[in-house]
Amino acid sequence: MKYADKELILLLRQGEIKAFDELYFRYVPQLLRFSQTYIADKTESEEAVQEVFIKIWERRMTLNGSRNFRSYLFQSVKNHLL
Q: At what angle do helices 5-13 and 17-35 cross, to 10 degrees?
């Protein structure tokens, strides 16, 4: 799949697992690097990113497709780490 984030959010809200996978693989490398600027422990960084994506899956029906998903992810990871 090669969709914009907004399109993927709409598909995700419909329960489309491939949309979730696309978002996950699109952002995990960046989020891991970002989280490691806050904590040096690689395992803890990975767990923080995983937790954020678990919450996204659990709350997929309430995601707002008009918001900037990338910013939402980075802010969510930062909040989780703090």
A: 120
